[in-house]
Amino acid sequence: MFDGKRVFDYHRCRSCDLIYQHPMPSGEEISGFYPDSYSIYSEPAQPWFPPRALRTLRDKLGYRHLEVKGSALKMLLPGKAVPEVAPFIPGGRALDIGCGNGEFLLRLHSIGWECQGVEFNDKAVGICRSHGLQVFHGDLKSAGFEAGTFDFVTANHLIEHVPDPHELMREIARITRPGGRVLIRTPNSQALGRNWFGRYWFANEVPRHLMLYSRPNLQMLAARHGLEAETVFTPVKPKILLRSLDYVLGNRSKPSEKRKLRKWLARLYIPAAKVTGRGDELFAMLVKR
């Protein structure tokens, strides 16, 4: 359902298990799913990495140039994992496709990457440019980047919004240099939460999500375009479960994310999803061989 007024149908491919919207909406319809009020089109909230993440980047991923500051207590805590960032490359060039308000690009720039973005929303492009980011207004193919331009290409929660994933992956592979990395993040169609909640699973995000991927079919898609999986895992997000619960209950008052008992119970979901390998998100770091 979308605004409770229209029904959208999804089918499952018997061959690869891909879940896809059918009939596929037109380009004009898809554009209408993204009003300027869409949350990612607001001002960046945290355009930097916290100290514990900076320590990990410096000590484990080659960002030796970073200066890490923080309280003595924070310095005693272990570093925070930063799987969404590729190892440092001096003078490395990064591209974020569907960069929204540019927050992730600003983070990458803050640690030494030369950054560019691609974004189709007018408001988001304006926000990015107001922060000094170089962002192409349009789609990836229209940007016309030269082959092998980038060392690190990211598509954070983008591929599920794209009606032709092969065209997208083909272009991503073309503009990534050999040995370069590609980050894909997208909802996991095999998530335990989706099994529990079905149509009420929050990350379905009907109708914006045109396709939902599983680990096998995402890796299959990447491999067809010369991108090999380096790391693939399924993070767990209790907020997805809590928001799904609000859908089931029809809750329009205080959200479950702000109810202590429900938040505590949602934590029980974390080990269940981790043990089964069925977290809510697919996280894939790919390499162009």
Question: Please, could you describe this protein's structure?
Answer:
The chain has 289 residues and is an alpha/beta fold. The protein has a domain at 10-33 and 145-288: Rossmann fold, CATH 3.40.50. It is 33% helix and 20% strand. It has a seven-stranded mixed β-sheet, with helices on both faces. A three-stranded antiparallel β-sheet has the order 1-2-8, with no helix packed on it. The longest helix is centred in the last third of the chain and has 12 residues, at 238-249. The radius of gyration is 19 Å and the shape is globular. The model has no long low-confidence stretch (mean pLDDT 94).
As for the CATH topology of the domain at 10-33 and 145-288, it is Rossmann fold
Number of helices: 12
The separation of the N and C termini measures: 41 Å
Gross CATH architecture of the domain at 10-33 and 145-288: 3-Layer(aba) Sandwich
Stretches where pLDDT falls below 50 for ≥5 residues?
none
The CATH C-level class name of the domain at 10-33 and 145-288 = Alpha Beta
Strand arrangement within the widest β-sheet reads 5-4-3-6-7-10-9
Q: Roughly what percent helix? A: 25-40%
CATH homologous group name of the domain at 10-33 and 145-288: Vaccinia Virus protein VP39
